[in-house]
Design goal:
With about 140 residues, this protein is α+β, with helices and mostly antiparallel strands. It has a single domain, classed as Nucleoside Triphosphate Pyrophosphohydrolase (Alpha-Beta Complex), CATH 3.90.79. Strands 1, 2, 3, 4, 5, 6 and 7 form a seven-stranded mixed β-sheet that branches. Strand 1 and strand 2 form a beta hairpin. Helix 2 runs antiparallel to helix 3. The longest helix is centred in the middle third of the chain and has 13 residues. The protein is globular, with a radius of gyration of 15 Å.
Amino acid sequence: MHPSTSDPAPRGAPVRAAGCVLWRAQRHTATVDVALVHRPKYDDWSHPKGKLHPGESAEAAAVREVREETGAECVLGARLPTERYTVEGRPKTVDYWVAEAVSGTFVPSREIDRVAWLPPDRARLVLTHPRDRALLDAALAALGR
């Protein structure tokens, strides 16, 4: 793998990323839906996230990634646990926040071909990675749900 503008870290250096557990209130109930994104390259469902640009804060990256992947403008809420795992032999750190979707419209792309707004119990079943289920639980606790 060669370094690129989207991955400026030296070979073997930790990859830094940020994302959100994106939620919106259901219109006629006191419940919420959460947004999951489908990445066709990996055929998985996850929370919106992505790599930080050079000089970008984790907070700014989280908001940008939500916009790029879901079309939603969001307002960051509580900080969530940081995920740490290895991808292709490199450590990856992903900082997360709870974020409320306030506007926007999804447009499919090569990176994200679908967004699903689901009640939390359904989202838990759809999420591909167990670590994302734990993140969903942390977000719901932060929202008092």
